[in-house]
Write the structure tokens for this entry.
Amino acid sequence: MNATRLLLVDDHQLILDSLQTLFASIPNVQVIGILNDSRRVCEMLLNTPVDVLVCDLHMPHLSGIDLTLQLKRIHPAVKVLILTMADDAQTIREAVRAGACGYVLKRAGRSELETAITAIMQGNRYFSPDVLDQLSQLQETGPNDHDPLTCLTDREVDVLRLIADENPTHRIAEKLFISVPTVETHRRHLMQKLGVKSVVGMVKFAMKYGLVS
């Protein structure tokens, strides 16, 4: 299995150096470059194969969201993991909408970062538990009145699909690379958002909106 190739971007060199050491300690991960200027990312990607871009959110010139939007258009195969201190719900939602595959807070440890990279490389998304809590508290108006799915995070939709496919909690945790308590948190949030009181209600919702066959 080929090593996952990471490009690290942060405007603080000290943080970059620390992240390089941390990620280099994760098995099957290769840090192929570090950049302290977000404007140089697209140029570097022209000649350097990268699987995952790990970047800060608030940076001079191009923010993490700006980079995500650029890569989605120019280098769609490169996945973006936002690694930041910003934990407000609206900013997180903007990053998700831009196309970020993951959003992890900088207080995360090595184990969570390894889990995030593994999940992303397997085609899933990963969000820190605190990030998921913020997203669940974000109240939206307008389109949500017509399409209930827009009030759910991508991870909540993943959990809902697996629940509707009759996966037990521990199996959902294994498939999404999250903990059992996190699955239970998603389950509670789904019931609250969908206005249902049981798994049966969630399954009916998933069938109604075409999340399962």
Q: What stands out?
A: The longest helix spans residues 180-194. Residues 139-146 have pLDDT under 50 and may be disordered. Residues 139-208 form a domain with the Arc Repressor Mutant, subunit A fold (CATH 1.10.10.10).
